[in-house]
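Researcher: For the annotation table, I need structure tokens for Sulfotransferase. Please keep the output clean. Sequence:
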Amino acid sequence: MRYCINCCIHLLPNDLHRQCFRCRGPDHNNQKCPACRGENKIPLYTDSKQMKWLAVLEVRTDHCESWNGLFCLRKGKLCSLMFGLIIMTLVMVSYMLTGAKHGLLLIPSPFHYGAFASNPSLMDNESLSDMKDHYQPSKMNISYVKDYPSIKLIIDTITSKIEFIARQRPDLEELRKQEPHMFSVIPNKFLPNSKNPCWYEEYRGNTTTDPYATNSYALYSKRFRIIFDYLRKVFWNHLYHYKDKHYRLRCLPHFYIIGQPKCGTTDLYDRLRLHPDVRFSAIKEPHWWTRKRFGIIRLRDGFHDRYPVEDYLDLFDLAAHQIQSVLQGDAGKERGKRNNIIIGEASASTMWDNNAWIFFYDNSTEGEPPFLIQDFIHAFQPNAKLIILLRDPVERLYSDYLYFASANKSAEDFHEKVAESLQLFEGCVLDYSLRACVYNNTLNNAMPVRLQVGLYVVYLLDWLTVFNKDQILVLRLEDHASNMRYTMHMVFQFLDLGPLSEKQEALITKSPASNTRRPEDRSLGPMLPTTKAILRDFYRPFNTKLAQVLSDDAFLWKRT
């Protein structure tokens, strides 16, 4: 083997090793080169014996050539160096990833498309972090600035941009074009002898056919498989047979509890379920109108196959079976009682969640959705009744944070998230309308806390563009908690439910409250006084407008 004596590198045959600045090939003058003459060489001794010349490691005293020392490292040392660099890189990356808790780094969102189709500067594949940069009016991150006057300036900017502008209601033909399958399944007329919107649908299967084999609710959730197993067993017994054909009764809800989250909707649902004339969907919150029909199972998982309307109708089969018994005259003496059955549905996202529109509906006007959930519900059920339960939006937001935050929950962390969300919302209203920002998917997912859910009046005004005011019952959680009997009587009257015995009424009104704050969340205490003052200022103009629309100053929440 041949070696370069100048730098101890193993040479291949015929290799002139031109990389070494001392090795110049055949023109190299050994007599003139000090390295070749042996100057500045220090022979290496081991056990008092000089090593062979091929094993000599030259240690040079010429400091101007120190950069060449890197190439003189042995393979082991070089590998150790590379390994150290890799470890340092991993440590730096892990440190950067801690920014993910603020939603700024490496957070994949199912809604990573552009915020507004009408804004050409925002591409469809724009990332969440890019959207945050777009909405930030300055480089200063106020998430950690606990200075009330500084944040108050942001709130003043938002308040100056608030305009409650009536939306244009789409016509029926436009809705048909958007959802042709839904309109082909749900008829425009229902059975006259039922309180609920019900109709007969021909069933083309046989006794061995599984009517729920493709139901997406059963496929994606193990919790509901027991319900569907029972429905399979009794399905054939509840068909209507006429002239060698089989018909099943299909029903939609008579009423909807449409909102808002963390405002007591679960408690109201649990109490109404105890009424003998009320039936609900097999699942408390199907979220079909807002999410499942668009293919959203979990917001963090992005889009899946869209749930067809048939899957949603399957959820009301238990109630439809009881109504079917009445219509066939099989209920006997209980016919009058069973005929009063009404069906309800209680997805708390129905009132406010229109986040999916941008991925399915075109021709938006200045970033505003051309179609909303209520447009489709009204198209099929113009006489539907709607119940809304609200609470002080300041307290609602803190409760929402405690319920959905997974780690590092504290009053200080909540304050920081509120400040960051306010800054993002300000950036949006500077460029777009209030409605465009409220229904903007990317902005809503970028905000660390759901500020927009507490803008009750924005959603209510849009529901009032399609439904009459007497079709909507708006309650306060504060009143519901302090006088349960009174609010439940309001609900019974609104739904035209019959009188109850004292025992039945006591069962409904005196049951323990549902879905209350968890003990570990209670231990965190209330929000900071500064945070409360900030949120009071932010929600004040919206509460004022809400009190005007409902002609009730209680919705100002001045004493809460």
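Researcher: And a one-line annotation?
Model: The chain has 24 helices and twelve strands.
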